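Exercise 7 asks you to align residues with tokens for two separate proteins.
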Amino acid sequence: MIALAGAFAAYQAQQHQVDPVASSVASFDMHGLAVGGGTADVAGKSTLTRPAAHSSPAAAKAKPQAHPSATHTPSRPRATQAAPAKPPAQTLACSGAGGAGGTGMLPYNYATIVNYLVAHGYTKMAAVGVAGNIYQESKGDPESIGSGGGGLIGWTPLPSGFVTGNVAADLQTQLAALLTYNQGWAQYIPMLNAATSPTSAADIYMNYFERPGLPAAYNREGAAVAVAQACGIA
């Protein structure tokens, strides 16, 4: 009887013993419920005004990682070399007002146009050549509307959403579209970037990219020279 009672007591003790695996899983599940399952918004860099992104504080927390088993030997992490920080894009200090009442043949927004192009891989000389052509097409006004077209380079037909009345937003939209447009003539971009004077850059962009029905090369070249002088590009 004593032996039987002892065996029965041992059986009861075993039934009440906590399973460590089950306990760990339960603990993990409860933590997951406490953390929640929201997704944090990622706000991209942009010059346009956008509503502030709302992110869930709970989603920012990292999920708990399972502890390695006693028999597992963690591998030694490999040493990695941090990538060098990308230098900030150079901003040209341009002087002189553009557009009506401005200095010489400077287009509106010429400093923004030139700095945008330089920040996206164009040489300074190439950028002033593009700006000179923009002067002839729109005077640098992104809200410009002409016969069947409009915008900075006189897109024909004018794409929907390019001219909305919001000058700052439309300028950024059209500058991004300008990069895409230029990629249609990508084989000539190295030639444009190799230009050594404002007039040659203006002519290259006119002949190989813009291809206008009314060249008015004098205006394009003169505006490119004016932009180069205003931004100290020689």
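Second protein for Exercise 7:
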Amino acid sequence: MRSGFRLAACVFSLVAATLVSGCVIAPVMPPRGLIYTDQKAPLFPGGEDGSKVGKSSAHSVLFLVGWGDSGMKKAMENGGIQEIRHSDYRVENYFLFYQRYTTIVYGE
């Protein structure tokens, strides 16, 4: 009985670790704070910024629920951009309770 409980606990821990690890993948993995993170970095460096800016975001709460579209196409639509000149991303984390990943595109 006891060994069955231990096996179930090990399996649950491995599955949980696997599922949670997929939530924190970014193109570049800068150091993140456990309590607070607000970082911005180039996604695809390019030339000049351009006159228009478009943003799109994806959100997560407690690594349990996630929603949103942080794709470049959505950011282009939101900013009315036809040609991307430069793009950045921004990662925000508030005590592992709420995370937001934002794609920022600059162009014309």
